[in-house]
């Protein structure tokens, strides 16, 4: 059995000290026999180290002998059960993929062609770890296009949350666009996505929609279906648009009707403000990889809903809640499904050599209960596997760009 990938993480105001601490951890792992044949380094830095990123990369390359590196810079990173948010920190991992089984790519170096084959006949472009600049236009379209360039069609990764222009690492420090590493069919990767929420009702078929306006579900007015699913009274019968964004956006809404009616209406609006909408094709709800977008308004006269996403590519929706209980339960679900798949296909979690976790920066804080609670929950579910990653401004799994999710990927 192959050894786990050597990995390390550290925090210190001086990047040189953090780098030295990480290298000491890596060297200790190498003395135990791991990492001797490393060919690819994964590196995540908080943006406190953005100005020193080139120096960090050069030092790691020199001290480890590993030439190829990929990663990203963000406001926060993860490593094991630890979360480093808005503090100087780094995390790295060394993989020993065969040289022909991976290729670092960026705007300066294209990935292998979709139909490229290795000498053993297997596909050279099967899956990819992808990092991107969040300011790049039409990133959702770019992600779909990139997935189409892979014979396996599978991506995982995220958009940098860095406050600096240089946001990516692909054998050098880069700004803009996307980069990462393409992996061949010989590299086994298993993954799951956690939505951070749970459905509160059944999946409904879209029967009338245009753009971002959802008019009918299962041939019934969409607002009526929503109110039924969330158990809210219909206090929105008066004509008009109701804004369901956060309360600060509601300050200018007129209060019509007697005090009792205003109270009931306010209670319904508050329930709507905590509601999100899962959208996608029918089978996506079985796999749990549907998109979740906010509900931004309702049209009480037309009994329609306005979503923060185009509905042209979706044919089903499910209304969801996002709170601590739902987030914890869904992360446990994703971890359980991933662990079960690894045990069925690879004999157990001992087959995991390393993991990458990309979580949304918006999931930090109190959503999971406090500092590092998200990573501690993953550690409890999956054990002490080598794991590093990034808090992102958007998460990538397969051919979709997500918000507010966590993407787990295990190298086996």
UniProtKB/TrEMBL annotation:
Signal peptide: none annotated. It is a multi-pass membrane protein. Residues 37-221 form the FIST domain. It holds the Pfam family FIST. It comes from the Bacteria. The keyword Amino-acid biosynthesis does not apply. It is found in: Cell membrane. Keywords: Cell membrane, Membrane, Transmembrane, Transmembrane helix. Residues 222-399 form the FIST C-domain domain. Its main location: membrane. This is Small ligand-binding sensory domain FIST. It comes from Pigmentiphaga soli.
């Amino acid at each position: 059995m192959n050894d786990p990938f050597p990995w390390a993480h550290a925090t210190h105001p001086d990047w040189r000290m953090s780098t030295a601490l990480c290298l000491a951890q890596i060297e200790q792992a190498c003395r135990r026999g791991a990492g001797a044949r490393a060919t690819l380094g994964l590196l995540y830095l908080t943006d406190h180290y953005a100005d020193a990123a080139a120096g960090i990369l050069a030092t790691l390359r020199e001290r480890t002998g590993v030439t190829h590196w990929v990663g990203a810079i963000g406001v926060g990173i993860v490593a094991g059960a630890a979360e480093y948010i808005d503090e100087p920190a780094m995390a790295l991992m060394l993989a020993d993929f065969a040289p022909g089984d991976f290729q670092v790519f960026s705007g300066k170096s294209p990935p292998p062609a979709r139909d490229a084959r290795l000498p053993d006949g297997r596909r050279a472009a099967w899956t990819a770890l992808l990092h991107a600049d969040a300011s790049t236009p039409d990133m959702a379209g770019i992600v779909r296009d990139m997935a189409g360039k892979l014979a396996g069609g599978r991506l995982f990764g995220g958009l940098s949350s860095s406050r600096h222009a240089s946001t990516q690492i692909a054998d050098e420090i880069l700004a803009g666009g996307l980069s990462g590493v393409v992996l061949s069919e010989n590299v086994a990767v298993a993954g799951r996505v956690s939505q951070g929420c749970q459905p509160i009702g059944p999946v409904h078929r879209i029967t009338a929609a245009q753009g971002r306006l959802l008019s009918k579900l299962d041939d019934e007015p969409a607002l009526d279906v929503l109110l039924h699913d969330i158990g809210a009274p219909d206090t929105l019968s008066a004509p008009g648009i109701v804004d369901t964004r956060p309360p600060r956006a509601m300050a200018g809404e007129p209060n019509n009707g007697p005090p009792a009616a205003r109270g009931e209406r306010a209670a319904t609006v508050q329930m709507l403000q905590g509601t999100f909408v899962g959208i996608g094709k029918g089978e996506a709800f079985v796999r749990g990889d549907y998109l979740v977008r906010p509900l931004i308004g309702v049209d009480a006269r037309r009994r329609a809903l306005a979503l923060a996403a185009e509905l042209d590519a979706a044919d089903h929706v499910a209304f969801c809640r996002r709170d601590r209980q739902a987030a914890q339960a869904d992360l446990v679900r994703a971890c359980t499904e991933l662990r079960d798949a690894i045990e069925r296909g690879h004999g157990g979690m001992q087959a995991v050599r390393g993991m990458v976790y990309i979580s949304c920066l918006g999931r930090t804080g109190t959503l999971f209960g406090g500092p590092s609670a998200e990573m501690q929950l993953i550690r409890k579910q999956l054990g002490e596997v080598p794991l590093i990653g990034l808090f992102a401004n958007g998460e990538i799994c397969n051919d979709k760009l997500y918000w507010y999710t966590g993407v787990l990927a295990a190298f086996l």
